[in-house]
Amino acid sequence: MNTNELRQIQTPLKALYTESPAEALAEMRAFGVVDLSRLSCRVKTPFADSGITESGLHPKAGGDGRTACSGDMLLQSLVACSGVTFAAVATAMELEISAASIEARGTMDFRGTLGVDRNTAVGLTSVELIFDVVSSEADDRIDKLIQLTERYCVVLQTLRHGATCSARRGSVTDASSSPQ
Asked: What pLDDT is attached to residue 125?
């Protein structure tokens, strides 16, 4: 996709959202089925080959390493989002990028999630994104690209600034949509 094609797609959306902010709102969902016998959860992943991602305990929490750890999945979501954002921003800036890769590294102290130490945080306590970019563009242009990627990456901004979160009891109303 080139800059003009991207603008052609996004310009009417930007105009719509400026005129009617409610049109910009979207509810996103994820759905999973808990497998108590395996201490895992099968998450619907429509774009994966199997349609399902099975998550389980990290080996440092007692898992066997054969299922996706939710912490790894969070970092994968961050890499995916920042990668798409990077590509869109590079296109909008008309930058020539030969190759790019992104790595996310996170640190977690498993004493928190295992209840070993109530004063230890549960979850990732630090996250770092590393951009490896091959380009003949000037360093300041690549730095600006990374800065804008950080600014517009949904997952990164959610991690940085948080979101209102809650948990509640519900009921499964559509069993046909549940992962096998």
From this structure: 94
Report helix, strand or coil for 141: helix
Q: Where are the alpha helices (DSSP H) in the chain?
A: 3-19, 70-92, 110-113, 139-152, 154-161
3-state secondary structure of 39: coil
Note whether 177 and 44 are within 8 A (CB).
yes
* Chain Cα centroid distance, residue 40: 20
> What angle do the packed helices 154-161 and 139-152 form, to 10 degrees?
70
| Distance from C-alpha of 103 to C-alpha of 89, rounded to nearest angstrom | 18
Structure tokens at 174: 């559509």
Look at residue 115 in the predicted model and tell me its pLDDT: 94
Q: Name the residue with tokens 């690549």.
A: 142
Q: Which of 102, 105, 104 is nearest to 85 (CA)?
A: 102
| Residue 86: predicted pLDDT | 97
Q: Which structure tokens are listed for 117?
A: 């130490």
Q: Which distant-in-sequence residues (6+ apart) come within 8 Å of 3 by Cβ?
A: 91, 92, 94
Question: Which stretches of the chain drop beneath a pLDDT of 70?
Answer: 172-180
